[in-house]
Recover the amino acids of this structure.
């Protein structure tokens, strides 16, 4: 017959709900302490035996008569037969039994019953019957037959030293023994149930956790597949769009140069619009291709020692026309004795242009945009793990500051997501596909650097790019900054 099942598919035996074993409920050392205390109380050897017949604990030495009988081989054999007979009777019995020994001593076998199940037996003895011991004047015939060479006076003296109990004494001993063992078994069973239910709960939690992990792994794999499909889709679409766009831009350029015939002023404006929008579309396509390559890990980095002074000057000069059109003052500053950074100059320039262009785009007319490079100490965020024992490292910090409206706190963690824009409305003032910051972050990560946004109070955004140094360098002395400012109204 199959076992009933419980939590996590465990059987009733697994949960400790079926009949337990004596050795599962009581520790052997604790059982031996009980045996020793009873032996000291009544002066009679006591043994605890499991339901399978295994000796779990005992206390008390051999009685004088048993030691005397054991002096001969025949006597030892007779004692062994008594022990085996007591075991057989004890294993079959479900009630208390008395067994008489050939020495005229007696044994009492008390079954350990708990919750209707016999878990084991307690064997008490040998002891004498108080009523018959008063009439003993010579050894019994069975004793003389079992040990023919035994000395009768010595045998009588040994029997006299054996404790004697009447029926009332035995009843009280048995009742006390049952009470103590019932309490011990109840406590042991309670602890067993608690532990098994705890194990079952852990097993169920582990099973649920395993299922959730498997579901998460499956979902993660699906997301990776979708991400790979997305990257492949972007790369394919960008390539397919760039091919016809090249033709559009080429024919637009030929029309603007008059190869197809002289254009009127209105037609020239139309062609110029076509060329401008085509360039915007080409920039978007190139951004999609860059993002796809960065996400797939196929972007090739050509690193070398890069001077930040030269790179910031080139970035600023590239964006002067865009800043001039809005009346924005663009400046850059580099601390003296700035060491080089080990980076891909073209890719790092792309990061700087993206961040500076973004600052110009969101800064209102008459505002300022500043690019500032300085030496700094790597923060704990840049040194994951072993923060307390890690050596202090220097790095280069490039800050992009503007006087625009700033970025809300809730949006700062999302602005580096691809295609995400703070203003998602269809009537937003500023254009773009939301790829510039995503590309900048991935390029900075590829250089083992970091990029983050500082708090803006009350307005103005501050983007900070941190890059590792080529080598350790001492901090520069305090002094005037080498500043190049572009007064856009004069250039």
């Amino acid at each position: 017959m199959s076992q009933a099942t419980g939590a996590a598919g465990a059987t009733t035996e697994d949960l400790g709900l079926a009949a337990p074993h004596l050795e599962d409920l009581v520790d052997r050392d604790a059982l031996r302490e009980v045996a020793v205390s009873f032996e000291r109380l009544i002066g009679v050897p006591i043994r605890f035996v499991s339901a399978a017949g295994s000796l779990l604990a005992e206390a008390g030495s051999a009685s004088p008569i048993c030691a005397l009988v054991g002096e001969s081989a025949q006597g030892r054999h007779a004692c062994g037969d008594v022990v085996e007979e007591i075991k057989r009777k004890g294993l079959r019995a479900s009630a208390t039994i008395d067994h008489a020994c050939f020495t005229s001593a007696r044994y009492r076998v008390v079954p350990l019953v708990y919750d209707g199940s016999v878990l084991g037996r307690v064997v008490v003895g040998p002891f004498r019957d108080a009523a018959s011991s008063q009439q003993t004047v010579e050894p019994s015939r069975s004793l003389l037959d079992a040990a023919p060479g035994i000395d009768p006076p010595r045998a009588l003296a040994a029997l006299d030293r054996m404790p004697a109990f009447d029926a009332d004494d035995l009843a009280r001993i048995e009742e006390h023994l049952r009470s103590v063992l019932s309490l011990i078994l109840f406590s042991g069973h309670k602890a067993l149930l608690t532990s098994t239910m705890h194990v079952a709960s852990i097993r169920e939690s582990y099973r649920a956790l395993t299922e959730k992990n498997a579901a998460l792994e499956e979902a993660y794999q699906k997301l990776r597949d979708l991400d790979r499909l997305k990257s492949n889709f972007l790369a394919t679409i960008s390539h397919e769009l760039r091919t016809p766009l090249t033709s559009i831009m080429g024919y637009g350029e030929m029309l603007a140069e008059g190869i197809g015939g002289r254009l009127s002023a209105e037609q020239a404006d139309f062609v110029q619009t076509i060329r401008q929008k085509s360039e915007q579309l080409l920039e978007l396509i190139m951004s999609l291709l860059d993002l796809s390559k960065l996400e797939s890990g196929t972007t090739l980095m050509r690193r070398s020692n890069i001077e930040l002074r030269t790179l910031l000057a080139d970035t600023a000069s590239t964006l002067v026309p865009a800043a001039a059109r809005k009346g924005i003052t663009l400046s850059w500053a580099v601390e003296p004795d700035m060491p080089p950074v080990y980076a891909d100059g073209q890719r790092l320039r792309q990061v700087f242009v993206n961040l500076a262009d973004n600052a110009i785009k969101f800064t209102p007319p008459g505002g300022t945009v500043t690019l500032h490079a300085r030496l700094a100490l790597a923060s704990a965020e840049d040194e994951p793990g072993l923060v307390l024992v890690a050596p202090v490292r220097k790095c280069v910090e490039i800050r992009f500051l503007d006087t625009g409206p700033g970025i809300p706190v809730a949006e700062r963690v999302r602005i580096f997501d691809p295609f995400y824009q703070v203003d998602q409305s269809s009537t937003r003032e500023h254009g773009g596909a939301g790829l510039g910051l995503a590309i900048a972050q991935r390029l900075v990560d590829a250089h083992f650097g970091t990029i983050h946004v500082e708090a803006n109070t009350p307005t103005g955004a501050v983007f900070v790019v941190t890059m590792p140094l080529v080598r350790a360098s001492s901090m520069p002395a305090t002094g005037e900054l080498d500043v190049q400012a572009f007064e856009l109204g004069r250039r």
Q: What stands out?
A: The chain has twelve helices and 14 strands. The chain has three domains: 7-204, 212-294, 304-486.
